[in-house]
Design goal:
With 360 residues, this protein is α+β, with helices and mostly antiparallel strands. The protein contains eight helices and 21 strands.
Length: 360
């Protein structure tokens, strides 16, 4: 890192914020000059089973219907939409004064619920659009990408199928989520985004780990194919990986690094690894925190020598209203359902987000 970059990162003394712009004034050597930066939020959110109320005969969604176990009524559905739209509308606003330019979602049922979501009052004026494909998941949950049309323009998208089979029966397929790949221009600069929701730990972490390692192999294949098209491709792989940053599927299969200085060619930078080591997480289970929700970045987004948009910082969005305040799950994410039924909450996961900045 050159001397100017070191001073830039260590000697910031004042931040002046305008919508989508971050103005930084450094002291000492740069006290007489002002550099302005455009900044955008890129986020990911597992929204915990955003289902409509209709029974889909092709999937196992029966619980999320008015007559199902969850008694999923129109009133609850509308309440869920209002809650999720509120969260999305506030992610990153303390810096950008704008909701995310791009946000990946998982645990959504179909295109219709996404349309209902972006037309909520909290989001409608942002003019979001949707990239979505139906996955073969047995419960009917998919991944998707929302983007503000004034900021991001998709140029290509595809859904990459994850083929996994049971260890005990190699002919029995595990039906899970596809990996969504979207290439587009953020203010005219090409960015590649992969949205993931890897297989769960159902049946036990160790017993199911091969499924997530297979998902990691597919993700690596996608990333390598993007590098073949452009060796300097800027890539973001985000999602609920159902593994922590130090698990094999992330650390070994995807070759992630927690330190920018350790990045080698085609490694991925994982800003969430150090968060986890500091005791932070995005979901809790049996009084233990995990950080399954992660945003991974190619070296071209963190390299100080690269042009255009660069990674600035990452965080977990955990405002007070997203946290359970009492009872057995005090301190956990305030979810929509717990063992007592509908709670009126948000999700069993906290969202994660990063800022991308570009010098003007």
């Amino acid at each position: 890192m050159n001397q100017k970059c070191k001073l830039f990162s260590k000697m910031i003394s004042k931040i002046v914020i305008f919508p989508s712009l971050l103005f930084l004034v450094a002291n000492s050597v740069y006290a007489q000059s002002k550099d302005s930066y455009k900044v955008h939020t890129v986020a990911f959110y597992n929204v915990e089973n955003l289902f409509d109320i209709e029974n889909d005969s092709l999937t196992f969604d029966d619980d999320r219907t008015p007559l199902g176990k969850d008694v999923w009524t129109l009133e609850k559905y509308q309440d869920k939409l209002k809650n999720i739209s509120k969260v999305i509308s506030e992610i990153g606003t303390e810096t950008t004064q704008n909701s995310p330019a791009i946000i990946g979602l998982c645990e959504i049922e179909n295109y219709m619920v996404l349309e209902d979501l972006i037309n909520q009052p909290a989001l409608k004026e942002k003019n979001y659009d949707i990239v979505h494909y139906d996955s073969p998941d047995r419960r009917g949950v998919d991944v998707a990408l929302l983007y503000q049309k004034s900021l991001f323009t998709p140029t290509n998208s595809q859904s990459r199928r994850l083929l996994i089979y049971e260890l005990e029966d190699p002919l029995k397929r595990v039906y899970t989520r596809d990996q969504l790949v979207v290439t587009g221009n953020l203010d005219g600069e090409e960015i590649n985004i992969i949205v993931n929701h890897w297989p769960s730990r159902s049946g036990g972490e160790a017993r199911s780990s091969y499924k997530r390692e297979r998902a990691g192999q597919l993700n690596k294949l996608i990333i390598d194919s993007l590098y073949q098209i452009d060796p300097y491709a800027k890539i973001i792989s985000m999602g609920d990986f159902n593994d922590d940053p130090t698990n094999k599927s992330i650390k070994k299969v995807l070759h992630t690094k927690a330190s920018k200085e350790e990045l080698e060619v085609n490694d991925l930078y994982n800003p969430m690894e150090n968060m986890m080591k500091n005791g932070r997480g995005t979901l809790a289970y049996r009084d233990s925190w995990n950080l399954f929700d992660q945003i991974l970045l190619s070296g071209t987004l963190v390299n100080s020598n690269s042009e255009g948009y660069k990674f600035y910082k990452a965080d977990i969005f955990q405002k007070n209203y997203l946290i359970t305040i009492k009872g057995q799950f005090k301190g956990y994410p305030f979810r929509s359902y717990d063992y007592g039924g509908y709670t009126g909450g948000y999700s069993d996961h906290f969202p994660v987000y990063i800022y991308l900045v570009k010098k003007l």
